[in-house]
Design brief:
Number of strands: 2
Shape: elongated
Low-confidence stretches: none
Strand content: 5-15%
Strand order of the largest sheet: 1-2
Structural class: mainly alpha
Distance between the termini: 84 Å
CATH architecture of one domain: 3-Layer(aba) Sandwich
Largest sheet: 2 strands, antiparallel
Helix content: 55-70%
CATH topology of one domain: Pyruvate Kinase, Chain: A, domain 1
Mean pLDDT: 87
CATH class of one domain: Alpha Beta
Length: 206
């Protein structure tokens, strides 16, 4: 589960956490899963509510290096290769555009074979198909996690931009309303003082 390390990005993190919780309840109920949170917000939520966290990764920054992904992928592939887990799902914020960031659940392991288009062909793999897959699968997992992390960062920055713009507009609207209220009150006080002065002057001349 990939969330941000910082807040002030609207409902982005809460949407990812809500999607993760709903997915876990639908798939495994209260047990039968383990979580690898990437990002401080998701890590804090899962630890606070006692979820089974087997590894955590935080402080990846705005421009994470590809080698940051290697430990994450290694934890996942080791757990899967040892047979302790049956499947791996990647939950993150898919970047659609500046205004839309969609929480998605993507199956990561086991690999799903693609649909064969056209006539099937046979290939010879050296040293063996299993040997090739042994080298390719970790690279594939790293690439997918890195892509998801980059999309999450883009979603975070976009969500923060929208949240700050909304906050600025709300602040300007509040300042305008307060200024109008202040001017009305000031005008009422001035009118009251002028009325008192005029009444006093009229009483003196009368």
């Amino acid at each position: 589960m990939i969330t941000s390390d910082k807040g002030l990005c609207g409902s982005l993190n809460s949407n990812i956490i809500r999607r993760t919780t709903r997915f876990l309840l639908d798939e495994g109920g209260a047990t039968g899963y383990e979580i690898v949170p990437v990002g401080r917000k998701g890590r804090d939520f899962m630890i606070r509510y006692g979820r089974p966290v087997i590894a955590e990764f935080v402080n990846y920054g705005d421009r994470p290096r590809p080698d940051y992904i290697v430990p994450i992928a290694r934890v996942i592939t080791d757990e899967y290769a040892a047979g302790r887990i049956d499947a791996v799902y990647l939950i993150y914020a898919e970047f659609v555009n500046t205004l839309v960031q969609r929480p998605v659940v993507m199956p990561l392991l086991p690999l799903q074979p693609g649909e064969i288009v056209g006539p099937a062909r046979e290939y010879i793999y050296e040293p063996s198909p299993a040997g090739v897959l042994t080298q390719l699968v970790p690279r594939y997992v790293e690439a997918r996690i890195y892509q998801a992390l980059l999309e999450s960062i883009a979603s975070e920055q976009s969500a923060r931009l929208v949240a700050m713009r909304n906050a600025t507009e709300n602040a300007k609207e509040m300042v305008s309303e307060l200024t109008l209220s202040y001017n009305k009150l000031r005008q009422a006080n001035i009118t009251k003082e002028l009325t008192e002065i005029a009444s006093g002057a009229a009483a003196l001349t009368g």
